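anyone else get weird line breaks when pasting these?? whatever heres mine. first is seq + C-alpha cells for prot A
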Amino acid sequence: MSAPGVVIEAIEAVEGGRGGWSAPGSVERPVRSVPVVPGPSPGSHPGHIRVAHSERSCYFRLVSKGEETRRQVLEAAVEVAAISGLASLTIGSLAERTGMSKSGLFAHFKSKETLQIQVLEFASEAFVQDVVRPAVSAPRGEKRIMTLFESWLAVSRDGAAECLFVSAAWEYDDQPGPVRDRLVRMHLDFSDSVAQMFRTGIAEGFFAADADPEQFAHDLHGIMLIFFQAHRLLGDARAEERARRAFSRLIESNR
C-alpha cells in the first residue's frame, strides 16, 4: 500500500474510539502534525492531528529521496507477490525482476522473511491511502461507509495490493510465524477500523441503535471477497452490479 506523506491515526484520533489499521512499521517514529481532519490534539495547530506511534495506529510514512530506490523495489515486489504469491518471493527472484544485485537487495532486507514482511507493510500503505484515507476524510455516517465501499471496490477491481492480501491469506492461514502474525494483525486492525466507522454512524443516528458494528464489518468483508473472486477469477461481467446490490441490502438491514 505507497506512502505520499504522513497522514493519520485515523479512526482513533478522529473518532476517539478503538481500532485503526496498523500501517507499516509499528515502531516508534517522531510524532508529526498533519492537516487532514479536524480534532487537534493539545499543542498542535488548529485543524491538525497528532500521529501516534502505537501498534494500533493508522498513518502514512514520509518517504525521503534516499528511500526512492527501496520504494521502487517494493513496488516491484508487490506486483510479483500479487501474481506469484508472497511465499515464493525471494531476494533472488526480486533481483532478477528489478535488475539489482542480490547483495544490494540483501543490504536492504537481510532475509527473505524481512522482505516479505516489508512487502506486506508497503502494500498496506497503498491500501490505507486508497481505501481508508478517503473514507475517514468523508463525513461521518452513511457517506463515510459509502466512500469506504466505493474505494475498496475500486482497489479490489484494479489494485495489486488487494490481490496480495487475498492470496497471502490463503498462503499463510496454516503457516505459523512472523509473516502470518503480521498479516493477521493487519486484517484484524482493518476490521476494527471498519467497525469503528460503522459505530460512529450509529452514534450519529444513521444506523439502528442495536446494529452490530463487528457483524457489519464481517458482512462487508464477505461482500468484497466474493466480488474479488467473481471479478478476478470467474470474469463475471455482473460482479460489480451484484456487489453493489449486496451492499445496498446490508445498509438497509442496519437502518
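and prot B, same format (seq, then C-alpha cells)
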Amino acid sequence: MKSRRIKILSILLTLCMIVGMLQPAAVYAAETTDTGETVIAEEIDDSVDESSSGGGNDAETPVDAETPSETETPSDAKSPAVEEATGVSDVEAQIATASETTVTIDTYLSDLEWTEQSCGGKSDFPNGTAKNTNINGAPMQLVVDGTAQTFAKGLGIHAPSSVTYNIAGKGYMKFQSYAGVDYSRVNDYNNGEAVIGNFIVKIDGEVVAESGEMNPSMDAHFFDVAIPADAETITLETEIGSAQDWSDWGDWADT
C-alpha cells in the first residue's frame, strides 16, 4: 500500500514540475528524501492542493515544509555528538570508580626485617625472636574459639620481648594479629608458669592496644589496630606475668 502511494505521488510531481506549479524547495525535499515516505507524501499533497487553488508560479512553500537541513532524525537513532558525549561520560565514570577502589594486600611482619628486637630467655634462645615458629622452633599454636590452632606465619618470642619495624611511607592501614601464650606450654601453666603479663602494640612509641595477662589455656587475644598514614614505626612488646619467668613462650600469630 505504501509503495503504491509513492508511485502515484511521483507521477503527480512529474506533472506539476512540467507545468511549473511547484517551488524548487518542495521539489528538492521530495526528490532527496528516500526513507521518509509518509512525511514527504503529506507535504507534496499540501503543495499540490495549494498550487491548484493558487495557480501559477506564485504558490508559496508550505509553512511546515522541511528543508534538507531540518530533516528529522528517527527517534531511536543517536547522533554522533550524543554518542561521543556518552562515550566520554562512560570513561570518566569508569575512571572515577577505579580511583575509589581500594586494593588490599596483606603483608606479614614475619616476612619483613625488623630494625631492632630483644627477647627473654637468652640463655636458652640466644637467637632471639623467631620467624614463623614458636621460640623453640616448633609450629605456633594458640587457642582460638576454644580449640588449639596451628599458625604458619608469625613471630615467636619469650617474654619480656620487643620487636620494632619501620613502616614509614609503606601505606599500611591496619595491624592484625592473634596473640597469646603458645599452647605447648599448657602443662607448665598448670605448674604455675607460662604466664605473660601483657601483649602490647605501640605506634611511634605510643601504646595503642594491649591484651592484659595471658596464659596458654586462654583464647588468643585478637588485635585489630588502625595505622595512621603518617606512622613511622610499629613495636610489638610483651611483659612478664605474675608467675615465674619460665616458659613464657608468646606468639604473635598470623602476623
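btw re prot B: The first helix runs from residue 2 to 19. DSSP finds five helices and twelve strands in the chain.
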